[in-house]
Amino acid sequence: MPTSKADIVADVDATLTILQHRRREGRRWRVTGLFAAILSASIVLDIATGPSMLSPAEVLRSLTGWAERAPMTDAIVRSLRLPMALMALVVGAAMGAGGAQMQTLLANPMASPYTLGMAAAAGFGAALTLTVGGFGLPDMVAVPVGAFIFSMLAAGFLLALTALRRRGGDTIILGGIAVLFLFQSLVSLIQFISSPELSQQILFWLFGSLTKATWTTLSITAAVTVVCGILLFADSWKLAALSMGEMRAASLGINVRRLRFKVLAIVAIMTATATSFVGVIGFIGLVAPHVARICVGEDQRFFLPMSMLAGALMLSAASVLSKSIVPGALFPIGIVTALVGVPFLLWLIFRRGSVA
Amino acid sequence: MIRLDDIAIRRGGVDLMTGVSFTMQPGSVYAVIGPNGAGKTSLLRAIFGDLPLSAGAITVGRDRLTAAGGRRFREPRRWRDRFAYMPQDTHLDVALTVLEVVVLGRLGRLGLHVDDATLALATERLREAGILHLADRYISTLSGGQRQMALFAQVLMREPTAMLLDEPVSALDLRHQIHLLDLVRRETRKRNLTTAVVLHDLNLACQFADRIVVLRPGGLSAFGPPQEVMTAELIAETYRARVEILRDSCGRPVIQPLGEMGEAVSGAEGREP
Lengths: 356, 273
Fold this sequence. Notes:
By secondary structure, chain A is mostly helical.
């Protein structure tokens, strides 16, 4: 085997390049691990915060069931605050994944289930159900069902757009914005013609809230999110190729229209389920993918889980904040995410401009 | 072998080209040239199966791509797998490293874990393209020319049996144009590929191609080896430009532009994306 000096140098270069890549992957694992750790801490803090403050140690004792604790603690932690804290995790993850894939799909950093009108449609569905009643079903059941139906209707409209037009990332975004405006004004219309009490109820739903979380709603949301997350993860490479642009993805042999349709359908089901149980929580779907992109890039094997982690962390932290801004009172979480999200997004934008 | 039989392509209700027939053999480079809007990109996309034919057929091996005839257009299964198609647009604003972009060339054969063998293959392609030192950079931070080299490395990574390259040197300086086209020719010979490459520079086309496909708005203008095809009359007719044909030391034509010829040829002006 002839090994000239040039061959050896070339070999070393190749090995170093691979090593460099493995190091990059190692960094991504560590950042992902760090986010998971912070998220765990945030969940414990979330459980500890509330009208009666618990110490994080007490929370951990109750969760693990290892040591002595006050008898009331278990009741508060396990049946009241744990479902809420986990709901924040699951819904945040669903929003993060939904936003990430919409941005990948439409090659647009402004895309998210919220900005494309699916949340507004859910809001209208909820408002309509609250107004006309739920055909004999209790509000607990009827409102999420109404929200889910209208959210899926909005998604169906977007899906129809992907099916109709051969090229159409921009068409879908414009269609989504039209849906957003339509349902926002329809909600305003309902509020305008309904009684002050009903209007108040609608407003409360629109703010978004985790307080309605029960083990049942949590299980449904978690199951849907996990299944959808796995389905998306299975298409990691195709989605990474799609993030290079439609033409380029097609040139690699991907049926872009079919992939777009499939992913949009998955995202729609996942975010519609989450929204129907907790109400409108904006901004997380928009911002979490940007955080993930900065931390781990757009290799979807990292980008998707990281978007979910970032979304979960943001909503969990927002939940802690919503309980501590006014001690003893609960600030609507949808307002907190937007208030914290806006400066954060602006920071990301300006940071981006200086890096590019 | 890729055989085009009397194909026609319609776009926006207008016949972009009709009656185009020629055959491309493995191991040869075919330069596709022609004025703006003549349908060079469309021809490549049609071969790739991305644009429907309105008449005729394209045959590759035992597979046959025919006009849809009113039904919804559908290319044969696995038709695209043999091709590595490199679109003209090199815009890429995505947070992927150059190495990751090249690895994506293996799409369809990638597992959840990318093993060292695949990475080694990708570094080999980057070395051939001469941009191994950029492997760990985000592709969005590269210059247009560097991006084009990276995307060509991705094409090589696919290990195709045919390459369809749409203006692969449009953003490259002279040295890199020569480097890339030389690489295209070497790979074509070594792996016995059938290669079609759209070029705007007639001199590069004459230097690196075995055969030249000359398109004019509406169809095929000429097809053959550069020495035979490249005449001042043909260029006057297809480009509406006056040129003088010189010969280099190897007898290959060299095109010296002299001036334009006024009145534009009717056709699909500005159709190219």
